[in-house]
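Problem: given the chain below (120 residues), write out its structure.
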Amino acid sequence: MKILIADDSRVMRQIVIRTLRQAGYGGHDLIEAENGAVALELVHTQAPDLVLSDWNMPEMNGIDLLRALRASGEQVPFGFVTSEGTPEMVDRAMSSGALFLIAKPFTADSFRDQLDAVVA
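Solution.
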């Protein structure tokens, strides 16, 4: 499985990758994007099986990325890994087509709770 991780912080992308490995998803092909615009291009050129995206990024934020994907007909499974998880954000994420929102700080268990159904 190919997993795209979109976050403007290189350190945070590495933390997400480390947490994926701790959660038991280390054997997957992991690709990275530093913002939503790059992630949008990579979805079209790399065809990931799952997108994990931050909400707040320069160029194109995560919710705009998700909406652009869905507007183009792309149905790749999409989840947010972000610093905020207000009920309003969760509602916006889900109504736009996200499968889940994992708020920071997160653990390997919180990744497993959300990803097991998607990655199985």
